[in-house]
Specification:
about 80 residues; mainly alpha
Length: about 80
């Protein structure tokens, strides 16, 4: 599971924040839970907003072949 010596690798976390589309909805739901002593029946609106956001995100396919590390490995192989 180790890396090869001399292999190229870039930590993508250093290049800024990663896009987190449902973070605001999740924080609103968690804050509502905290204010209402973990009673989710009082946080129905926030729960529905979070669920709709997560459902919208699940339909989008991820493209792992467009990451910077994929391209660095591909260039290192000589393609």
């Amino acid at each position: 599971m180790g890396r090869k010596a001399g292999g190229l690798f870039v930590n993508p976390k250093k290049f800024g924040t990663i896009r987190k589309p449902c973070m605001k909805d999740m924080l609103a739901f968690l804050n509502c839970l905290a204010l209402n002593n973990n009673k989710d029946d009082k946080c129905v609106r926030q729960k529905e907003l979070l669920k709709s956001c997560m459902d919208a995100q699940s339909g989008k396919p991820k493209k792992p072949w467009q990451t910077i590390n994929y391209h660095l490995q591909r260039l290192n192989r000589g393609r």
